[in-house]
Prior knowledge:
Structural class: alpha+beta
Number of helices: 22
Strand content: 5-15%
Strand order of the largest sheet: 8-7-6-5-9
Mean pLDDT: 74
Largest sheet: 5 strands, antiparallel
Number of strands: 9
Amino acid sequence: RREIFDLFDNVLLLAKGGHVAYMGPRDGCLSFFGAHFASTPDQGQNPADFLLDMVTDSRPEQLARFSSVWKAHARAARPHINLRAKEAVRRRSRKRPFFFVQIWLCLYRAGQQWVRNYPSELLYAVLFFVMGMLVGLLFQDVDIEEVPQPNFLLSFVLGLASMHHSLRMFGTEQAVYWREASSGLNRFAYFIAKMLWGVVPNVYLPLVLLAGFYSFAAPRGFFADYMLAVVCTYFFCSGLGYVISLLFTPQRAQMVSVVLGALLNVVSGFFPRISQLEDMIGEVPTAVVLAPSYARWLMEGLFAVEELRLGEIFKFRSLRIAKALSYCQTDEGTNCEETFGRTMTIIIVGGLVFRFIALILLLGRHRGAQNRKSFSAHLVSMFLQSAGSSGAMGNDDHSSERFGVDSTNKRAAHDRARRSQARESGAFTSLDKGEEDKRARTDSRALERTFSDLGKPQRDSGRRASADLPAATATLDEWLAGATAAAGGDAVPAEQWATALFDCKAERDDELSFKRGDVLKILDDSDENWWQAQKKDKTGYIPSSYVRMMD
C-alpha cells in the first residue's frame, strides 16, 4: 500500500542474489531509477509496486547493471568510503577487548541468556526431580541382587536428559557465533566461557535429581558418592551433547541424542552381560564396544558403592553378583574398594575428550562463515608459498609463476601499464570505469554469498583460500546521507586470457571445471584468489593459482 510505503524514511532494495539496487532516502528512490534506468511509474501507479517490479527483474544483464550503477552512484556520493570488501576487511583496525575480558563478556552473556530462559531451565529442573523420584521409588528396600536394575534406569534417564539439555549450548546460536567470529571474537574465549557456564547446570541439575531420589529411596551408599557419580555422568553426557549439536541441525540433533543415548545403555553390559558379549564377539571387540559407554562405568561404580556398605554376612551374595556381571574384577579377583574411583575417572576422561572434539569442530567447521581459511586451503597456501620461495631463491621465474605466488605483483604491473597506455591514448576514463565495473561485480558476488549464508551454513571448499565476507567501513547514516548524487556508467574491460596449469573440478555451482592446458578467458581478476573465467559457453569462478596469464 502506498500509505505504508510513505511511512518509510529510508529504503533498502535488494535484487535477486542479494545485489543492492538502491539504499537511501525514500524520497530519492524514484528519481534514482528515473535518472539511471530511464524508468518511472505510470500515472496513478503505486510506487511500491513499481519498485518491486524493477528489482525482481532477474535478467543477468539487469542484475549486473543494478550492482554497477549502485556502486558507481555510492562512490560518487562518498568517495572516501571503501566499497571493496576484501580491502575493507584487511584495513579494518578496530580494537578488540583483551582475551580475559572477552571471556568475561561471553560468560556474562551466557548468564543473561540463562536468566531470560529461566522458564525452560525451571522445566528441566522439574524433569530431573521427577526422574529422581521415579528411580527412588524403584530403589526402596532393594537387595544387592536387584541393585543393577534401578542403576540401569538411573543411567538411562540421566543420560537422555543430560544430552538433551546440553544441545542448546552451541546448537541454537551457531549463526551468532559465526558472525561474531568473523568480526574478531576470540573463539577460544567464547569456548572457555561456554564451558565455565556449563559448570552451573552440571551441579544444580544432578543435585535436583538426587533430591527427588532421596525423597523415596534410602540407598546404602553415601550421598557424596552418588552426587559425584551423577555429576560425572552429566559431565560425560553434556560433552557428547556438545559434539552432537555441532554436527547436526537442532531438529536432527535431538533425534540423534535419543538414539545414541539408548545405544550406549544397550551396550552397558547389563543385558546382554559382558560375559555373554565376550562369548559372541570376543574379549577385545567387547572391550572396544563397552569402553565409550558411560552406562557401563556408572553402573559398575554405583554397584561398588552399594557393595562396600554391606555387612560381612552379605558379602558372599554381592561377590556372586559382581562375578556374574563382571564388575570389580581385577587380576587378584573381585575387589570393589578401588572400582568407584577408577570408573569415575574413566567417565571424566570421556567428558574431556568430547569437549576437545567439540572445540575442534567449533574451530574447524564452517570456517568460511567465520572469515577463516579452511584447513586444507591453509595447507595449500603454505605449500604454494614455500614452493614460490624456493623458486625465487633459485632465480627460477617460471617456477614462481607456475605456482602463482607472484601473480599479484605481475597483475599490478600489468594494470599500471594498461593505465599508462590508456592515458596516452586518451581512453583513461573508459578504462577507469571498466575497473570500477569489475570491482562492483566482485563486491556483488561477495554480497550474494553473504546473503545466501544467512539462511544456511556455508560449505567450505578444499581449495578456497579466503572467505568473501564484505565489511563496511562507514556507518549506515553515512551511506544514507550520501546516497543522493548520481553518477555511473558501464564499460567493457579489456580481454585477458590464461592457460590452465592443473586440472580443476568445480565443487560449487558457480565454479568452472577445466583441465591442464585449457585456454580460459578471464572476465574478472580483481579478487586475488578467485577469478571469473569463461570456457566456451560456460562461465564460473576458478582459483587464480591454477592458471597462468598469457601475454
